[in-house]
Structures are given as C-alpha cells and as structure tokens.
Amino acid sequence: QKEVEQDPGPLSVPEGAIVSLNCTYSNSAFQYFMWYRQYSRKGPELLMYTYSSGNKEDGRFTAQVDKSSKYISLFIRDSQPSDSATYLCAMTTLTGANSKLTFGKGITLSVRP
Amino acid sequence: DVKVTQSSRYLVKRTGEKVFLECVQDMDHENMFWYRQDPGLGLRLIYFSYDVKMKEKGDIPEGYSVSREKKERFSLILESASTNQTSMYLCASSPGLGKVIYGYTFGSGTRLTVV
Predict the structure, then answer these.
(1) pLDDT score recorded for residue A6
(2) Does A75 touch chain B (CB under 8 A)?
(3) Do A51 and A27 contact (CB within 8 A), yes or no?
(4) Cβ A97–B97 below 8 Å, yes or no?
(5) Could you tell me the CA-to-CA distances from A100 to A40, A66, B77, B99 in Å, in that order?
C-alpha cells in the first residue's frame, strides 16, 4: 500500500459546482498536510496547509483533515474555470532532522464554463 | 518575490548525450530537490540536498547524479541520456531544519525530450 493515495481522476465539473478532492494515507505519523495546485506547464504552488484535524477555510477553499480516518479533503466552492489545474496533496511527519514531503499523484480538475 | 529558476523550459537531447539541468534559488534555502513528473506516476524524487556539497538519493536515482557546489544552485546530471528519461523535471527548495511546514517552492519545470 502506498503511503498516500489520491483519486486518479480526471475530474470534470460545470462552473459553480462544489468540488471535493480527497487523499488517504497510511502513515499515522503524518502531522502536517498541504495542498498544491499546478497549472499546465507550471510547477506546483502551495495552496493551503493545515496541522490539526478539522477544517481550515481560505476564501472558496476549505481543507479538511480527519486523522482518525487518515483522510484529507480539499473542497472548492463555486468552482471557476480558473480553478482548472492539477491538485496534489502532500504531507509530512514533522519529525527527523530533515523530514520531507510525501506527495499524492495528483488529480486533474477541469471546470467547464 | 521568492523564486526557483530552472535554466531551460524545453530541451531536446540525443540518446547518449550528457545533459545538465540547472536550478537556482534566491531564498537562501537549505534544502533543494529534483523530481521528475510523469502522467499517472506523479512526482518522483530523484535526489535531494540538505546542504552544500551534500546529496542523498531519492526514490529513483539510477541514471542521474547531482552537484551542489553553492547553496543557491543544484544541478541534475543525466550521465548518458536515454529515451526513458523523457519527462518533466521539477526543481524545488525549502527552508532548513525543522521548517518543512513552510512547504516547497517549485520551479516552472524543464520538459526534456530524449530522441
């Protein structure tokens, strides 16, 4: 079992839809969770990060973490064509001298006008 | 604005050539990484470096080497390019010890085609 599993997609939704992107993980030591957004022909950019279980909101985006289920989600409200991109989850243990991020494979989202 | 700059956006090389991919960051970051990204496989870590002149193998180091002579520069070297190394290569950097919570800053990538 891979440490981080992400729905493979692709995902296509109409403009204005609520989008739910999900990742599961197996390593209970993961403590810090991030979402990256990657536009076509660009590098990934950090979108949101969260440390504890619960929800964190930033505009139309909400990151949710359920450590008991080892499950994280990114919700996008009122999706826009500009949200069309690949979304990658990432997480780390925060322990060790130089702990690294472990990434999901990413899911490509297309928002249709 | 902090930046990670990769020297080339697109490269076409011949099989057997020695290829150098350059990455420079201006954030005084300790850590630098090289990934390749392929459809269906996601990001795969090739090599990383926690300090100048230090390097560690990632998940797929075969066929690659790296060089970090200065803190701001991390080079990826394909010793003898092969067609299966055709890919998008992404460089990233992050602050040092205990600061992984700040995430990585990625460059825009180099699309390498080996023919």
Answers:
(1) 94
(2) no
(3) no
(4) yes
(5) 25, 21, 22, 10
- CA-nearest residue of chain B to A6? B42
Name the average pLDDT for chain B. 93
Three-state DSSP state, B105: strand
B52 token code pair: 């100048």
Distance from the Cα of A78 to chain B's closest Cα (Å) equals 27
Q: Do A101 and B40 touch (CB under 8 A)?
A: no
Q: Which two tokens stand for residue A46?
A: 């950090």
- For A41-94, what is each residue's pLDDT tens digit? 899 999 999 987 889 999 999 999 999 999 999 999 999 999 999 999 999 886
Residue written as tokens 């076409």?
A: B12
Instruction: For residue B108, give the nearest of B17, B3, B16 by alpha carbon.
Output: B3
Q: Does B32 touch chain A (CB under 8 A)?
A: no
Tokens for B66? 């790296």
CA angle at A110 for the pair A2 and B10, rounded to the nearest 5°:
75
B50 touches chain A (CB under 8 A): yes
Residue of A nearest to B6 (CA): A43
Tokens representing residue A64 in the block: 């949710």
pLDDT of res. B53: 83
Give bridge partners of residue A82 from the DSSP assignment.
none
pLDDT in tens, A7-38: 888 999 999 999 999 999 999 888 899 999 99
Euclidean distance between CA atoms B42 and B54, whole angstroms: 26
